[in-house]
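Hey Z.,

So I finally got round to the iron/sulfur cluster thing we talked about over coffee. Here's the setup:
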Amino acid sequence: MKKLVDKFGRQITYLRLAITDRCNLRCQYCMPAHGIDIVDRKDLLSYKEMYRITRVLSELGVNKVRLTGGEPFVRKDFINFLESLSFNDHLDQINITTNGALISKHISKLEELGINAVNLSLDTLNADKFKQITRRDIFDETMQTLDQLLASELTLKLNVVILPGVNTNEIGDFIALTKNKNIAVRFIEEMPFNGVGLRKTDEVWNLNRIFKEAEKYFTNIIPLDDKKSSTSKNFKIKGYRGTFGIIPAFTRTICGDCNRIRITSTGMFKNCLFDDGVFNIRDFIRNGASDDDLKELFIKTVQQKPINGFVAEANRKNKKVSESMSTIGG
Ligand code: SAM
Ligand code: SF4
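And the result:
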């Protein structure tokens, strides 16, 4: 089988696919209050196109897919798409990143389809702050979803974007959640992908600072052996059931073993979160590309994968990093 290997010898096995650019929330760190300019529906990849792209990539060694967005559950028929994807036996893992607002009624179906993990985004344990961050008043529903997910068979991770001056005082509380719950809390460094650009803040909260904050509350922190291509540095409090981790998304200290590619909801192929897109697959497919053409394109395109996110950023045509995470697919 031909494989996707970049010029640094890294094999690409993980696809992050954005289902849509639409979202039902308006998180401060992801988009402006009025939202983003969403594309025409016809410009989104169809499910058929997404299915085909995933199948072709899986024939080139991709065995893990994360479905994200925008909010994947706002797109009609997402569950049917998941069902078709679940028949692809090249895929060992299908995971979803979601804000959780619309998933509670689908949890048993996700279990039935063999979905592996859900990453739930939750940046605060305080209702007022939740409203301030997401600009929507659905804290209680999100907490209910958290409980339902904990009671399910799905592996659960919590994504917590660290927002200086907003939720940094909750780092200890989030870690405390791992005492009795089988959950992986992951603190994410904030990136400038918010539709406007890098926010000016008085404090810098990077991996080291987040870890130091954790040390204020816990003395018995055990570093875990991370998988080679892990996106986070992971830890456990001795005797606790769950784990916590820090994703150095902005300081980009663990890019070296990256095994990921991204495809945006409009079909833009991205070798790195920080590049501004390498190739539009949607247009290539709509112009009649065969599966072999697609394979050739993917093999060629991963050759351009930069060594890390800093090189990707330096190579951008559009130098300002300001697009919304919702259009990229987080
Ligand atoms: N809507 C879903 C959600 O929020 O989980 C999926 C898409 S969202 C873009 C994927 C992840 O990206 C979320 O965990 C979110 O917190 C994270 N994210 C969004 N904007 C970010 C930013 N500027 N910096 C760091 N993480 C960000
Ligand atoms: Fe929507 Fe997710 Fe962005 Fe929040 S982070 S606005 S939930 S896409």
